[in-house]
């Protein structure tokens, strides 16, 4: 069922991506699309899901998103990162920050506006971007700060409060969470965006979710914590139940007739000032 949620089959998507290495590990690569034009493009960086232990930029992302965002005038990067158990979740969050630092470090030569940046991710990727957007240590280690991130858009995550999620995880996901977050309550809390949501944080968040009970509860908990911390927070709630809905919001985001797409578009325009 996890594999269904990722979307394992490799599909065709927008042409024209450059594949670049942002680190020395073979997993530290990204695909980058940059629109043609005279003005530097805002950047959206995407982090795939897969339970922290599987998935890739080639199989765990919907087809519509790159072309849609490039068509809006945005640069789009989709990253791979090191996976559990060969890497820790802490290292994965560092990979997200390192990938972002790589792209913004080359922004001028790539036609990217490094002053306008959003990070987004689905499922486990939603957790990772929320963590990077609330716990500044990962950005600092990569030579960045919250000043380098204008917005964070987690898409249908359910691990923003890791201890709470693990306490109620069903049989299907219990081992996945244990493998990713271990048994130490202090570590679980340290990897929970909810517990880092007091200021400072990235300035703006859009939390997308479908109608999974745990995903809804976790998104609402994170939204409340971020608001208390002073971040601007919007929540987008969309149809779709269970893992089918979880997969659909990833696969269809960017399709013009999908309900979440215009919500994302309006939020990005607000963040980027477009």
Describe the structure.
The protein is of the alpha/beta class. Helices cover 41% and strands 18% of the residues. The chain has 12 helices and 8 strands. The protein has helices spanning 2-6, 64-71, 89-105, 107-110, 124-132, 137-141, 162-168, 171-181, 185-190, 213-228, 242-252, 260-272; strands at residues 18-21, 29-33, 41-47, 75-79, 112-122, 151-155, 204-209, 232-237. An 8-stranded mixed beta sheet has the order 1-2-4-3-5-6-7-8, with helices on both faces. A hairpin with a 7-residue loop joins strand 1 (18-21) and strand 2 (29-33). Helix 3 (89-105) packs across helix 5 (124-132). The longest helix is centred in the middle third of the chain and has 17 residues, at 89-105. The radius of gyration is 17 Å and the shape is globular.
Short descriptors:
alpha/beta, 8 strands, globular, eight-stranded mixed beta sheet, 274 residues, disordered N terminus, 41% helix, 12 helices
Number of helices: 12
Round the Cα radius of gyration to an integer and report it: 17 Å
> Helicity level, as a percent range?
40-55%
Q: In terms of per-residue confidence, which ranges show pLDDT below 50 for 5 or more consecutive residues?
A: 1-11
Helix and strand composition category = alpha/beta
What overall form do the CA principal axes indicate?
A: globular
Report the sheet with the most strands, covering strand number, pairing sense and barrel closure. Answer: 8 strands, mixed
- The count of β-strands is 8
Main β-sheet, spatial strand arrangement = 1-2-4-3-5-6-7-8
């Amino acid at each position: 069922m996890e594999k269904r949620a990722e979307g394992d089959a490799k599909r065709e998507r927008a042409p024209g991506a450059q594949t670049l290495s942002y680190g020395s590990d073979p997993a530290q690569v990204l695909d980058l699309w940059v629109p043609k034009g005279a003005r530097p493009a805002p950047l959206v960086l995407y982090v795939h899901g897969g339970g922290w232990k599987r998935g890739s930029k080639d199989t765990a992302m919907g087809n519509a998103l790159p072309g849609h965002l490039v068509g809006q005038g945005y640069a789009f990067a989709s990253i791979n990162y090191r996976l559990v158990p060969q890497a820790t979740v802490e290292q994965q969050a560092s990979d997200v920050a390192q990938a972002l630092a790589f792209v913004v470090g080359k922004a001028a030569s790539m036609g990217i506006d490094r002053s306008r940046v959003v990070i987004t991710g689905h499922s486990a990727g939603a957790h990772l971007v929320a963590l990077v957007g609330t716990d500044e240590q990962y950005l600092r280690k990569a030579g960045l700060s919250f000043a380098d991130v204008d917005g964070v858009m987690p898409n249908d995550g359910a691990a923003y409060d890791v201890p709470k999620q693990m306490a109620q995880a069903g049989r299907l996901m219990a081992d996945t969470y244990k493998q990713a977050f271990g048994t130490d309550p202090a570590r679980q809390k340290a990897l929970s965006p909810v517990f880092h949501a007091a200021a400072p944080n990235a300035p703006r968040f859009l939390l997308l979710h479908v109608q999974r009970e745990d995903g809804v509860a976790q998104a609402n908990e994170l939204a409340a914590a971020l608001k208390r911390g002073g971040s601007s927070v919007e929540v987008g709630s969309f149809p779709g139940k269970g893992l089918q809905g979880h997969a659909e919001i990833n696969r269809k985001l960017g399709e013009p007739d999908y309900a979440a797409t215009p919500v994302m578009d309006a939020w990005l325009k607000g963040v980027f000032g477009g």
